[in-house]
Amino acid sequence: MERRLGRGLGSLLGTPTTEETPAAPTTALPIDKIRPNAEQPRRVFDPAGLEELRDSILQHGVLQPVVVRSIEGGYELIAGERRWRCARLAGLAEIPAIVREVGDQERLELALVENVQRRDLDAMEKARGYKRMQDGLGLTQEQVAKKVGLKRATVANHLRLLELPGEVQQAVSEGLITMGHARALLALPTAEEQKAALGRIVREGLSVRGIEDLARAQATPTRAAVTPTETADVEQEATEPTKELVPEAPWIRDLQRRMQVHLGTKVSLASREGYKGKIVIEYYNREDLERLIALLAPQESL
Fold first, then answer.
1. Which domain holds residue 61?
2. Cα(282)–Cα(256) distance, rounded to whole angstroms?
3. Is 225 contained in some domain?
4. Which of 50, 148, 213, 276 is most solvent-facing, going by the fewest CB within 10 Å?
5. Residue 111 sits in a domain of what CATH number?
């Protein structure tokens, strides 16, 4: 029978505290004999939060034991890395701990489930934790959701964030954009467009609804009316031999990316021999055009 792991660390570790069943024994272990867990999904520890917990430990001690397993030369954390870090910052030589003898598979399961249930993980840390559970434990999204006590859609929405470019994922982790913004960016078809829209969110405070409107506009672009003269020009151009374009060079891709982030819209560069080419800057409505004009040709320079 599958164990349900969405009910907290006590059910995971077999350490209930009812009158019928006593709590697991706690022992004091040397802090320098404990090493962190490689399966910890948290990558960033808030310095201010660590200082607050350190001050609390200095005043009251470590109120909740960490959970470890025995390894060669010492112990490895299963749960409680913040407490362990702050106890070290407080200068403690020992920390209360519960020692569990578990194998690699159970240790991975305990570490991942306990950590991804934490409310203070950011969306990307949770996404990576769910991914580690899928890959390391061989679970489906539905099984991951059951183990952490969430709906499958919640897990799926987090996992989709891993499809975003690194710059966007970093912005989520740093709190520059919300998970709602990140999910809306997924509707944009290319990484370049997603990064360009990220620039607009940061610079202009573009809302989630604004990103959704942008994605719809790019999915169904409108074609401007063409005059007969323009039609003739297009037909004449089509009859001319096409000049061979130079394969896209790394410097072109870099410039294109920098312009997209700066302008907050899709930019295309086409280069021919001798650095001759063209730049195409897209806009989606009158307001977007005026914003670009303000960036490219400010009033005082006209």
1. 9-118
2. 13
3. no
4. 276
5. 3.90.1530.30
Q: How many CB atoms lie within 10 A of CB 285?
A: 12
pLDDT on residue 120: 65
In 3D, which of 161, 191, 193 has the Cα closest to residue 177? 161
pLDDT at position 96 is: 94
CB atoms under 10 Å from CB of 240, counted, come to 7
Quote the CA–CA distance of 11 and 142 in Å, as a whole number: 20
Helices of type H across the chain: 9-13, 47-60, 81-89, 104-116, 123-137, 141-148, 152-160, 166-173, 179-185, 191-204, 208-219, 228-239, 250-263, 286-296
Residue 26 lies in a domain: yes
Domain count within the chain? 2
Token pair 């209360």 is at which residue? 96
The DSSP code for 64 is: S
Of 22-31, 117-126, 135-144, 175-184, which range is least confident? 117-126
Cα four-point dihedral sign 284, 285, 291, 295: positive
Rounded to two decimals, what is the model's pTM?
A: 0.55
User: And the tokens for 39?
Assistant: 């399966």
Comparing CA positions, the residue from 291, 246, 290 lying closest to residue 269 is 246
Whether the Cβ atoms of residue 26 and residue 35 lie closer than 8 Å to each other: no
Cα distance between residue 24 and residue 14, in whole Å: 8
Q: Quick check: helix, strand or coil at residue 45? A: coil
Q: At what angle do helices 166-173 and 123-137 cross, to 10 degrees?
A: 120
Tokens of 222: 């409108």
Any long-range contacts for 105-110 (C-beta under 8 Å, 24+ apart)? 105/137, 107/39, 107/69, 107/76, 107/78, 108/39, 108/136, 108/137, 109/5, 109/133, 109/137, 109/147, 110/12, 110/13, 110/67, 110/78, 110/79
Q: Which residues are catalytic?
A: 81
Q: Say what the pLDDT of residue 11 is.
A: 41
